[in-house]
Specification:
By secondary structure, the chain is of the alpha/beta class. Helix content is 36%, strand content 23%. The protein has helices at residues 14-25, 39-49, 57-61, 78-87, 102-114, 129-139, 159-163, 178-194, 272-279, 299-314, 322-341; strands spanning 5-10, 29-35, 52-54, 68-71, 91-94, 119-121, 146-154, 197-205, 217-224, 229-235, 243-250, 253-258, 261-267, 345-346. Strand 4, helix 4 (78-87) and strand 5 form a beta-alpha-beta unit. The protein binds nicotinamide-adenine-dinucleotide (NAD). The site of nicotinamide-adenine-dinucleotide has 24 residues, from helix 1.
């Protein structure tokens, strides 16, 4: 007989619905309780998902039937919620952005390790087939020496989106704009495929929104640790949104990835056969969050919840651990630092003095 795996969710906003759907899709998954400081949000969610409502997330976490906590609160609160849950012995599945600064993210990773609980980070695009094919091809040398890894992550969010919640558009609670909140998905994927970045030179601006502190445009030059170069652009100012577009070039081949579809795959010489096999099956099926903050596929969350429960029960490797989640955050913090200094920044410099 299967055994129930109980979840408590903190934050009953847009993304909590995706967690509820993903948990309910698992034969053992059960949403036991929801916590939200806005009572009406907690009550509505509890009614729709037949669970208990709390306004105090600490009270919710005390429940014995909660084995894991989904952290779906505003990004600036993730560290507080995660560290507390870890200290209470609960496993944690935290939404991106895992934190809004590196110190908090490191504390989250440490808290999970010190309390022997799992910390998973939601980056649902990692579950798609196409980027995994490109990652494998890069690792196997199919594209030769890597030359470019470019990511264009141009979204549209209107002013009403930023006005819809106090935390949006603020450095203190969102931690950034088009790069931290929207671009982070594509940045995680770029690093997942290409490997980490050594140096970054960046510029940010706010061009299309009036009442936000954070950037709605960012651009950066990247030097990867493998010697390749890259151009990175993020925006919430381009209407309509164009989504995630990657150009991956090596001395032997090129892949172009548009959202979850490989639209072009060309490999020099005899490796082309392998390339045709590799492209097969990578048909796009995902919708896009490029112009909408509320409409995107739930499949990635479902796969990550299945993986998370298996990680807790059997030790299966997490699709995205805390350490993996830190990678994109580190690059983003370096991007902001470079824009602030007006100079190139070594990405690893930012973690100096912080023991993970
Ligand atoms: N993976 C994805 O594609 C994806 C998509 C959307 C949002 N997100 C992430 O999910 C998180 C939440 O985003 P959202 O769009 O659902 O936000 P939202 O504003 O719709 O919801 C946040 C909820 O948290 C509640 N809240 C605020 N402070 C709280 C506290 N101290 N305790 C408990 N609840 C509190 C708010 O009342 C609100 O109901 C963010 O980190 C965001 O980056 C991820």
């Amino acid at each position: 007989m299967s055994e129930q795996f109980g979840f408590g969710i903190i934050g009953a906003g847009i993304i909590s619905e995706y967690h509820a759907k993903a948990i309910n899709a698992h034969p053992d998954g059960k949403v036991v309780a929801i916590a939200d400081i806005a009572k009406s949000n907690a009550d509505k969610f509890a009614q729709e998902h037949s669970c208990e409502a709390y306004t105090d997330w600490r009270e919710m976490i005390k429940r014995d039937d909660i084995e894991a906590v989904c952290v779906c609160s505003p990004s600036g609160l993730h560290a507080e919620h995660t560290v507390y849950a870890a200290q209470a012995g609960k496993h944690i599945l935290v939404e991106k952005s895992m934190a809004i600064n590196l110190r908090d993210a490191v504390n989250m990773i440490r808290a999970a390790r010190d309390n022997s609980v799992k910390l998973g980070v939601i980056f649902q695009k990692r579950t798609e087939e196409a980027p995994n094919k490109i990652k494998k091809a890069i690792e196997e040398g199919v594209f030769g020496r890597m030359v470019f890894g470019d990511a264009s992550i141009k979204y549209w969010r209107n002013q009403a989106y930023y006005d819809s919640a106090d935390w949006r558009g603020t450095w203190a609670q969102e931690g950034g704009g088009s790069t931290m909140t929207q671009g982070i998905h594509g940045i995680d994927l770029l690093l997942y495929m290409m490997g980490d970045v050594e140096k970054i030179y960046a510029k940010i601006d706010t061009v299309a929104h009036e009442r936000i502190e954070v950037e709605d445009v960012a651009l950066a030059l990247l030097t990867f640790k493998n010697g390749a170069y890259g151009c990175l652009e993020t925006a919430t100012a381009t209407n309509p949104g164009q989504g995630n577009v990657f150009h991956i070039n090596g001395t032997h081949g090129t892949a172009i990835l548009v959202e979850d579809t490989i639209t072009s795959w060309a490999v020099a010489d005899s490796r082309e056969t392998l390339a045709k096999e590799a492209i097969a099956g990578a048909e796009g099926k995902a919708g896009t969050a490029a112009s909408s903050s509320t409409v995107f596929p739930v499949e990635g969350h479902i796969i990550q919840v299945v993986n998370f429960i298996s990680a807790v029960r059997t030790g299966e490797e997490l699709i995205c651990s805390g350490e993996e989640g830190l990678r994109s955050l580190q690059l983003i913090m370096a991007l902001y630092e470079s824009a602030r200094r007006g100079k190139e920044v070594y990405v690893d410099e930012l973690l100096e003095g912080m023991e993970i």
